[in-house]
């Protein structure tokens, strides 16, 4: 009976491994960011000489450059993502980055509902959210500016297209400009709030040569690399390592399995750690390939999980023998670090879904179903383990009573 029960438990745990769902993190994130739009030199206000499709959010930019007086007439076209949202576009004199940019933000006037185009300076305090964003005159020669809705939209709504037009006097012979753009969900009073932090949102800046239309887009990790990173980490840290911990927890008490539980536990954990290390390495590669794109919480949790997994691997080299007096301390350390690694890994998988913009996706639902199946199996096995434990306690108690009765009878017969 015990052999059949342990064999059933092992088969159940192996079946749980088969239901792992590999989330396609980056493919959906790229789709959420929006593909590049098709540019046009014609706008409702005027016709421009050149145009380009910007690399994120489906945005475009059209312009005419007058070299005689170094004047740039530009029209940026983007789209709102909320009826109470904002769309902004501007220029950074120093680098293709948000900090230090001079921008025009378009949003509805909270008092009248009319479309506004207000100037803002994005200082480091704004990036750190140390203070609200307040409109102020720009320290660049902004000769004219306006914002207008495009198409049938009469008011700001989700998906409405807006054109932000501006006339700027540039420095002589300076034709390579750093442009930034973005969009957000809310405006508090006349202060735009922070925009979403998906990969495409953080990469919404590019360097454009206004004479040749040559564009130097912000470097980002490829979709294939992001897909592989998310899949490996979800499978390893988010599923295989919890399964390996469950194997050790629920198969070890089965004496009939012998050392099989240990080999199964070691094989699953080694596979999970190898895949997780590969996913972690890909994350480092993605970070170096995407300067300026930083996810502090996701990165911190990933480092913590990788560190705990590495400590577990190294600890196997120093595992004392069962007769060693320090064995109990090693086991306590092994359990504490192991369960901690599992918890951090699972939490970071959910954080990864949020980072990639898949918080409400079927990929997350599939992972939740796989994790719930594993958790349900663990609950059932835990209940079974306690039932078996209580039965054994009762059996041992009855056996002790029987032995005591026999001893008493033998002593009475001896007298």
Automatic annotation (TrEMBL):
Please name the Pfam families in this protein's record. Cytochrom_B561, DUF568
Domain DOMON: where?
57-184
The note on the cofactor says:
Binds 2 heme b groups non-covalently.
Obligatory cofactor(s)? heme b
Q: Where is the Cytochrome b561 domain?
A: 199-390
Q: Where in the cell is it found?
A: Membrane
Q: Which residues form the signal peptide?
A: 1-28
Mind telling me which residue stretches traverse the membrane in this protein? 234-251, 263-285, 297-318, 339-363, 369-390
Keyword annotations of the record? Electron transport, Iron, Membrane, Metal-binding, Signal, Transmembrane, Transmembrane helix, Transport
- Could you state one GO cellular component term attached to this entry? membrane
Mention one GO molecular function: metal ion binding
Query: Binding positions for heme b?
Result: 229, 265, 298, 334
Query: Known PANTHER family for this protein?
Result: CYTOCHROME B561 AND DOMON DOMAIN-CONTAINING PROTEIN
What name does UniProt use for this protein?
Answer: Cytochrome b561 and DOMON domain-containing protein
Species source reads Oryza meridionalis
